[in-house]
Design brief:
Number of strands: 28
Shape: rod-shaped
Largest sheet: 6 strands, antiparallel, barrel
Structural class: alpha+beta
Radius of gyration: 56 Å
Distance between the termini: 38 Å
Strand order of the largest sheet: 10-17-13-12-18-19
Strand content: 25-35%
Length: 543
């Protein structure tokens, strides 16, 4: 059966409620009172409501869980339901338990006590009224003694009479005027300018996943229709140093040197021995000539062959004191000459610690492992997050050429690595991202004029698959029933909480309505320009 629902405001009186009941179109009228509805906490008011409903051939039902109001409604036989979906019924009236001690037997009372409890007769009431009238008449007939006339001529001004202080009077008048002006200004502000209303509409919306690959062009231009964005770039350059230990080892020393005597006994022609000719001792030590030399040819003297000779400087092939050899014969790689060497000296060798390329690489890794979170936080502070969406995944580091002191292969026990690192973070302009999301959702609801965007998802953006030139944006948007905000604000001007709730909830797709008035004394919606309408999606919790 059709029914009308009337929401009662806490400021409504019994007359306005009766008028709403009379104006209802259905035969069954459900009254939804607020908490602490004093106007209905009266049996008389409930009877008036019951009578007004009966005169209009209507039945009223109270929607409440208040025990006291339920008990009062039961007394006047008004049905009560806990909510709009439950079945209304008349609550049972608890029977009073009568104790024998509470029964008063009139036979046990003395005559005087019975006389006091007896109701007054009409004659007694008439006598009382007559007594009151007679007393009033006597008071009127009693003459008032005339005032003694005063003779203005004989009247004297008392000595020491104070003269009024007009300056003080003017000051009080001015202060009073200022206070009055402040009160008037406050009243004008409180009644005309201060009232505000915020209507929050919870609507059933459709969840739309959004995933868009973006191309990043730090040196280019933004083209939203092509999903191309010029990112906002922030950088921090830091020169970092790290000390490390040298772990390499190397043998260093001097090579032994001396002189070789070359003899040409087999050829009368001179022989040239080239630089770099190798000379080997009997135990395998090798010396190398450091220059070329020409050995004269052999000659005959006194019937004997006399070989031509020449000297050449040599140096040991390797370092070490083991090349410090005594004079001895050597075998030459050039077999045309015989070789004998003199004393070889100056050879030495020792092992030292040096910096290796591996040491430098390990130190570079230590630089990379330094805490980057604080640097990233500093980069984020450089963005104005009201205008820019930070792409957290775009945080990158790039290092310059590391410098080791001492350098690689140099002797050291400890060394220092210095490297310049550039930290970089990207952001996207919020306005451009918003336009991209709106365009995406507009395409989704194209051709459906009864739909609008409730949430484009810009407050829960996520980025993934980042490299220096691209990133994928993902979020969730919501679309739902289209409501003309300006028209709705105009329609709810002057309406109270219950009226606004009843009117807006009748719109298809609206799940719930909540209205906040400000300041606290405001009980009805102000003009439309002071009404803010907000939309909330009812099924976001189901993501």
């Amino acid at each position: 059966m059709k029914k009308d629902v009337i929401y009662i405001d806490i400021e409504d009186d019994i007359t306005s409620i009766i008028e709403k009941v009379k104006a209802a179109g259905a035969n069954i009228v459900a009254l939804v009172p607020p908490k602490r509805a004093g106007v209905l906490q009266s049996v008389v008011n409930l009877k008036l409501l019951q009578k007004a409903a009966g005169d209009g051939d209507k039945r009223i039902v109270l929607i409440t869980s208040d025990h006291s109001l339920t008990a009062l409604a039961a007394g006047v036989k008004i049905p009560v339901a806990r909510n709009l979906q439950s079945k209304p019924e008349i609550a049972p009236i608890a029977a009073l338990e009568v104790d024998d001690e509470d029964i008063i037997n009139g036979d046990d009372l003395p005559v005087g006590d019975l006389q006091k409890t007896a109701p007054k007769t009409a004659a007694d009431l008439e006598d009382a009224k007559a007594d009151k009238a007679l007393a009033a008449l006597q008071n009127q007939e009693t003459p008032t003694p005339p005032k003694k006339p005063t003779d203005s001529k004989n009247k004297k001004t008392p000595r020491g009479m104070k003269v009024p202080d007009f300056d003080r009077f003017r000051k009080r008048l001015l202060i009073g005027s200022l206070i009055g002006l402040v009160v008037v200004i406050f009243l004008v502000w409180a009644i005309v300018y201060a009232p505000r209303a915020t209507v929050t509409i919870t609507a059933k919306a459709t969840r739309t996943p959004i995933e868009v690959p973006l191309t990043l062009t730090p040196g280019g231009q933004t083209k939203i229709d092509d999903n191309v964005f010029k990112p906002v770039t922030e950088e921090i350059k830091k020169t970092q140093t790290v000390d490390f230990s040298a772990t390499g080892q190397k043998e260093v020393g001097e090579k032994a040197s001396g002189t070789m005597k070359l003899t040409n006994s087999s050829d009368s022609n001179s022989v040239t021995v080239a630089a770099g000719t190798r000379f080997s001792s009997s135990d395998g030590k090798v010396f190398v000539s450091n220059s070329s030399v020409t050995v004269p040819g052999a000659s005959v003297s006194g019937g004997q062959i006399v070989g031509g000779t020449a000297n050449v400087g040599v140096v040991a092939e390797e370092i070490g004191s083991e090349y410090n050899l005594s004079a001895q014969d050597y075998t030459s790689s050039d077999g045309s000459v015989a070789t004998s060497g003199g004393q070889m000296t100056g050879g030495s060798k020792k092992t030292i610690q040096i910096v290796t390329a591996g040491d430098v690489a390990k130190a570079q890794q230590q630089v990379k492992e330094q805490d980057d979170d604080s640097i990233k936080a500093d980069l984020e502070k450089k963005f104005n997050t009201d205008d820019v969406v930070i792409v957290q995944e775009s945080f990158t580091t790039s290092t310059g050429q590391p410098v080791s002191e001492p350098a690689v292969d140099q002797e050291a026990t400890t060394a220092k690595l210095t490297v310049e690192t550039t930290y970089r973070l990207y952001g996207l302009k919020r306005g451009e991202v918003k336009k991209l999301l709106d365009n995406f959702l507009d395409d989704e609801i194209e051709g459906r004029d009864d739909q609008q965007i409730y949430d484009n998802g810009e407050n829960k953006l996520a980025f993934e698959s980042f490299n220096n030139t691209s990133v994928t944006l993902s979020t969730t948007g919501y679309t739902g029933p289209k409501i003309d905000q300006k028209r709705l604000a105009k329609e709810i001007e002057g309406k109270r909480y219950g009226e606004i709730q009843q009117m807006v909830e009748s719109v298809r797709g609206v799940d719930n309505v909540h209205t906040d008035f400000w300041p606290f004394w405001v009980t009805s919606a102000p003009s439309s320009d002071k009404i803010t309408i907000k939309f909330v999606v009812s099924n976001k919790s189901n993501e």
